[in-house]
């Protein structure tokens, strides 16, 4: 059987797709349990949570990270289908970027320029860049194992999507502790942390998700 015929045959089978969705949900549950255990061991919720969620800048952090995780999860499920096109559904990833861009523009418009750099650097930039990948690690492992049931044509891209999903959820969990609320901080340091997890997902997925 030719490779193209095999891919088309696998793509026509709807059962693996349904199984992938269920498996991903179970994997996320296991990974989230691990991430929550790490959070409980090394961090604590920010004082005033969850009442602070009415604050726009704090709410923005969760809107960006959770919408990124949701978009990445849908993208990952598409990419692990055999024969899936690379750009299919990728536009969903633009939505959290648009939300963050709106927050950054709003801050630049309403705050004086001398406050921009302090907002960008925050108080705990290196903690953010370290702890988000750490909290994301159980999620990334669980998601990649769940996606092994698929047959992606581009395993590195599927792994990167898994990394975005794990990084978004890890960042949302870290946001429960984080006191740096500037959208500029979120853009820079949450972005760096999530990029680290995404790169790890791509590197691991390239081998783990290959078939």
From TrEMBL:
One Pfam family here: NrsF
Annotated TM spans? 20-43, 58-80, 92-112, 124-147, 156-175, 187-205
- What span is annotated as the signal peptide, if there is one? none
Spell out the InterPro entries in the cross-references.
NrsF
List UniProt keywords, sorted A-Z: Membrane, Transmembrane, Transmembrane helix
What this protein is called in its record is DUF1109 domain-containing protein
The beginning of the lineage is:
Bacteria, Pseudomonadati, Pseudomonadota, Alphaproteobacteria, Hyphomicrobiales
């Amino acid at each position: 059987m030719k490779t193209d015929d095999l891919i088309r045959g696998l793509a026509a089978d709807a059962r693996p797709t349904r199984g992938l969705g269920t498996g991903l949900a179970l994997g996320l549950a296991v990974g989230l349990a691990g991430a929550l255990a790490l959070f409980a061991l090394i961090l604590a919720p920010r004082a005033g949570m969850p009442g602070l969620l009415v604050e726009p800048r704090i709410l923005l952090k969760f809107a960006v990270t959770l919408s990124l995780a949701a978009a990445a999860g849908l993208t990952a499920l598409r990419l692990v289908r055999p024969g899936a096109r690379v750009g299919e559904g990728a536009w969903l990833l633009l939505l959290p970027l648009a939300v963050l861009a709106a927050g950054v523009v709003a801050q630049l418009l309403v705050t004086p320029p001398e406050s921009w750099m302090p907002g960008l650097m925050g108080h705990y930039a290196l903690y953010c860049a370290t702890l988000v990948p750490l909290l994301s690690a159980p999620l990334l492992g669980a998601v990649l194992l769940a996606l092994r049931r698929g047959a992606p044509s581009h395993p590195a891209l599927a792994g990167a999507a898994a990394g975005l999903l794990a990084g978004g959820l890890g960042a949302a969990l870290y946001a429960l502790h984080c006191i740096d609320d500037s959208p500029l901080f979120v853009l820079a340091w949450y972005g760096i942390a999530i990029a680290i997890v995404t790169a790890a997902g791509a590197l691991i997925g390239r081998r783990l998700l290959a078939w």
